[in-house]
Design a protein that fits this description.
Chain lengths: 316, 278
């Protein structure tokens, strides 16, 4: 760092001043360049992340309507309206049920798939591809396909049920069945994603640990799983569980494409409610309040799950 | 984990085989029904193969019913522009906060960490209001600009740049390279693996995104592929299943084909991307 400067100064104090000046010039130049090349991104983050976040809080405390010239401060009125609205509680409950069912289902299935695939080299590539395919596929397109497959009379699932002499099932039209059905589709969409993360985690476990465990008498594969794989996979499990829950809380495309929240709000979820209130009815204040509840839930559940799982991972 | 018994191998293949068949079944049916004429679909047949070649007309008719080519072009334009701006803004910013001594580095990185926590769904209403105020709704600008500065891209480039030794930069300075050419000609080419993974992540998420296009697009001609398919689906509900399946095949195909061609890059890109967003 100082090499070019050291040769430039001849002797004594004068030389040192020169080098200090040169260094300072170099630092000033670096700082200038730094600001120059970082500022577009910095400005972008201010305008499209920080500012909207502050604004959404302000909007939640106001009665502003889109296009209105002014707004009034209404305090917690939007939040009170929200707490008194049955629709909000239905939507929150559905999102919670969907999130827990899809994340736990897709984490367990993803883990099982990864363990089975990793257990032997045979067919590894094919299976990984097959299970990952739903992850790359456009969600809306697959939702349209699922809706047709589950069509009460024409869909192949119900045609097959009929051929078997069973009753046809209105999977997406029945208020009791619609959410479980959407959860199953969600698990199908996300399991491959989790599988890939687990595969990466499994590859970091050194194979001599399995040999050591076998020598120590952990003979059945199941026992080796509990003594070696599971504890060492702990951090991956934590990570996958958290992002999986966050991903499933953000379910939107499938709902918009298939059910629009119906029947009778049985499949209405938070993002759909926010979308409808904000961009369908333009109730900006109310939708902002919903957004804040959604953000708090997202951050809160993530933090809580981190804490709980961390303890188990460490003290196992 | 070697020396598995043949029994275990058989069981493993059986379980994985059944599950894989179940996972692939929707794709199989999607293609199968996209090739069936309406008459065959409405009789509720389970025969996977179409009886004639009439079903191919679904692919023609879906292009007649909707400007599907336009949707695909919109998808390509929007994804390419978003990726271009993301890299253009994020890479230099990450370089500045990792490789240059300058006071605002930690501040900017703090902002990046904050922005990582906030998904577009949270910032959507203010950004929508801002675009409305500027009269920029319902345009390519509205589809592209809100994503052009990606905190995730900055974070990713930063992680990668930290593994590149500073000595490389010092040596280049000794050789008299300008700071500008050190950044673009020496350091940035080394970030290609990170850039590739990020490109996959970015293109996959924006090609498939429905939320934002649904909010800002009004003109049908500006639709991205998912939005176009959704509007076809909602307006033709219950009528044209063969064409709907054909449309689904067409908008899913580009990414699926790319995935099958470059699996490693796709899996790396998506799994690393999904870690923080998605």
């Amino acid at each position: 760092m100082t090499a070019p400067i050291a040769v430039s100064g001849a002797t004594g104090l004068r030389g040192m001043n020169d080098s200090a000046r040169a260094l300072r010039r170099r630092f000033a130049g670096e700082a200038r360049l730094g600001w120059l090349i970082a500022s577009p991104a910095f400005a972008g983050l201010l305008v499209f992340a920080l500012a909207p976040c502050l604004v959404v809080f302000a909007m939640a405390l106001s009665d502003w309507q889109l296009g209105a010239p002014s707004a009034r401060f209404v305090g917690a009125a939007n939040f009170r309206a929200l707490a008194a609205d049955d629709g909000f509680w239905i939507s929150a409950r559905n999102t919670l049920v969907y999130g827990i069912a899809v994340s736990s289902g897709s984490v367990l299935l993803g883990l099982a798939l990864a363990l089975l695939i990793e257990a032997s080299p045979l067919g590894r590539l094919f299976f990984r591809t097959a299970f990952f395919l739903p992850v790359v596929s456009t969600t809306v397109a697959m939702a349209v396909v699922w809706e047709f497959l589950l069509h009460p009379t024409l869909g192949p699932v119900n045609v097959a049920l009929k051929r078997l002499g069973l009753a046809q099932v209105p999977f997406l039209a029945d208020a009791d069945l619609v959410l479980p059905t959407l959860c199953a589709i969600g698990i199908w969409e996300n399991a491959g994603f989790n599988m890939v993360l687990f595969l990466a985690g499994l590859r970091t476990i050194p194979s001599d640990l399995y040999e050591a465990a076998a020598l120590d008498g952990a003979q059945p594969a199941w026992e080796r799983f509990w003594t070696v794989t599971f504890p060492l996979l702990g951090p991956t499990l934590l990570f996958v569980a958290v992002i999986s829950l966050v991903r499933s809380f953000k379910v939107f495309d499938t709902i918009v494409a298939i059910t629009q929240g119906g029947p009778h709000r049985a499949s209405e979820v938070m993002l759909f409610t926010i979308y409808q209130e904000g961009f369908g009815f333009f109730r900006i204040g109310y939708a902002s309040a919903l957004t804040i509840v959604f953000l708090i839930a997202l951050v809160g559940v993530t933090t809580l799950q981190m804490r709980l799982l961390e303890r188990r991972v460490h003290y196992r | 984990m070697r020396g598995r018994s043949p029994l275990f191998e058989t069981m493993r293949l059986a379980v994985l085989g059944v599950l894989a068949a179940g996972f692939l079944l929707p794709f199989f049916w999607m293609v199968s029904f996209s090739l069936k004429p309406a008459s065959e679909i409405f009789t509720g047949s389970l025969n996977p193969l179409p009886t004639g070649l009439d079903g191919f007309m679904n692919y023609v008719r879906v292009f007649e019913a909707r400007p599907l080519g336009r949707y695909l072009a919109n998808g390509a334009i929007v994804c390419a522009a978003i990726l271009f701006f993301q890299v253009l803004f994020a890479a230099p910013c990450a370089y500045a906060i990792t490789k240059l001594r300058f006071g605002a580095g930690p501040l900017i990185f703090g902002l990046v960490l904050f922005a990582l926590l906030v998904p577009i769904q949270v910032t959507a209403i203010p950004i929508f209001a801002m675009l409305a105020k500027l009269g920029a709704l319902d345009s390519y600008t509205a589809l592209i600009v809100p994503f052009s500065c990606s905190a995730f891209a900055i974070f990713l480039f930063r992680q990668f740049l930290r593994t590149i030794p500073d000595e490389l930069i010092h040596a280049a300075r000794l050789d008299g390279c300008s700071e500008w050419s050190i950044m673009w000609q020496i350091v940035m080419p080394l970030t290609l693996p990170a850039a590739t993974a990020f490109a996959v992540f970015s293109v996959v998420s924006h090609w498939n995104d429905l939320f934002w296009p649904l909010i800002v697009v009004r003109t049908p001609e500006l639709s991205t592929p998912p939005l176009g398919l959704l509007s076809f689906h909602s307006s033709e509900a219950g009528e044209r299943y063969g064409e709907l399946m054909a449309g689904s095949v067409i908008i899913t195909l580009p990414l699926v084909a790319a995935f099958l061609a470059a699996q490693r890059q796709f899996i790396d890109g998506i799994s690393l991307g999904g870690g923080l967003k998605g």
